[in-house]
Amino acid sequence: MIYQIKDIDLALINRLRDNNYSRRIKSHFLAYGTKYDFLRFFFMEYKGERLGMFSEFNSALMISTFDGKELPEEMLEELSGFVRILKPFSVELERQYGEKLAVLLDDEYRSEKRTEFTYVPTGKLPPLEVDELPKLDDVYKILAQCFPRLEDSYEMWLTDTSHRIRRGLSQSFLMGDYTTATIQYIIDKIALVGQVGTIPEERGKMHARTLLYWIGERLWQQDIAVKLFARPHRVSYYEEIGFKAMGIDTVLERRDEKPSH
């Protein structure tokens, strides 16, 4: 059984397994609570037992299980039916279930592989001029040239990013007027880097590589571990920066949507 819940608290969310998807769910809850229509939370229950939960935020699902719980085939089948009805543009869930759900939804969703990386610090922060409190309009000007989905989503992106930054859940970095990176969440001393971009005329000059290394060292100084997800063919690129591959997850994206950058 899958059903929406509004009466949840942080203690309940903290029962979820320690993984990226649980942290994403937690970041949504800490940012917005349960009072907005664009964010909903659901329980997954099987034979009277709560197995996990997921969030729906701006048409993206983040799914995770509670510690010690597993999703049986029947629950995955029900989840696939729920996805067909809801039609989110993306679905992300724990590594062991991604491929199974992809098979059940193959006619409507394409599956994309993402490698999880963790930064291994060297303890050497390079002297680099990075704006740690940039104007978000300057950040967006770069990202809009790098991520097709952001081209027509300025107000939504600005509102969400500024909202999370004010609550200490996110941060943007700007190097010059050509390269940027945004932390998607800072939860439990773990930061997830996303939306790394360089304007077209400055690509190929190692700007993004330099900024990512600097971010890894800078946040390590603050006792924050840095993670990111990227396509598997980029493993050598991120390893050269100092990231270690930790495993491969499956992300589902609706076939009628533009592929993510």
TrEMBL record:
<protein>
    <recommendedName>
        <fullName>N-acetyltransferase domain-containing protein</fullName>
    </recommendedName>
</protein>
<dbReference type="InterPro" id="IPR016181">
    <property type="entry name" value="Acyl_CoA_acyltransferase"/>
</dbReference>
<dbReference type="GO" id="GO:0016747">
    <property type="term" value="F:acyltransferase activity, transferring groups other than amino-acyl groups"/>
</dbReference>
<feature type="domain" description="N-acetyltransferase">
    <location>
        <begin position="123"/>
        <end position="261"/>
    </location>
</feature>
<dbReference type="InterPro" id="IPR000182">
    <property type="entry name" value="GNAT_dom"/>
</dbReference>
